[in-house]
Specification:
The protein is mostly helical. Helix content is 69%, strand content 10%. It contains two helices and four strands. It has a two-stranded antiparallel ribbon with strand order 1-2. Strands 3-4 form a two-stranded antiparallel ribbon. Strand 1 and strand 2 (17-21) form a beta hairpin. 0% of the residues are buried.
């Protein structure tokens, strides 16, 4: 590929010259093509590429999984707390509605009893009025000139 002693100059982004030999470039290329390279898409490593051994990757994956599980447990705990708060609020509201319903039912019974008493009085007064009407009619028929 390259001659062993041939040097290649590469300009870095900060405008300093960097010199690589052909052997260093081949090592760099083989390094970049190897399976031990972990891309920046697989974690929170930023835009830098890093190389990890299998044990290191396993360790990092375990740590990442533990953190993910911890966050998941925290979210689950918060969700459970929110649900518990909601249950408590709804229980309080339910008790208030039950109390209100009980009060309205009691008021209904009071009004119903009053209404029944008024109906009974109305029937009694209608009967008495009818009796008075018949008594007056009978008296008028007995003494037509008096009335």
């Amino acid at each position: 590929m390259f001659l062993a002693e041939e040097a290649i100059q590469v300009q870095s982004p900060d405008h300093h010259e960097t010199v690589f030999t052909s052997k260093e470039l081949e090592e760099l290329l083989s390094f970049l093509e190897s399976d031990e390279l972990v891309s920046s898409n697989s974690g929170s490593e930023g835009s830098n590429r890093a190389v990890y051994s299998k044990d290191e990757r396993k360790q990092r994956r375990m740590i990442s999984n533990r953190e993910s599980a911890r966050r998941s447990r925290w979210r689950k705990k918060k969700h459970l707390e929110n649900l518990t708060d909601q249950v408590n609020r709804l229980n309080i509201e339910n008790q208030q509605l039950k109390n209100r319903l009980s009060l309205i039912i009691n008021q209904y019974h009071v009004v119903w009893r009053d209404n029944e008493q008024l109906r009974s009085e109305s029937i009694a007064l209608s009967a008495r009025l009818l009796d008075l009407y018949w008594t007056l009619t009978a008296m008028q028929s007995q003494h037509p000139t008096f009335y």
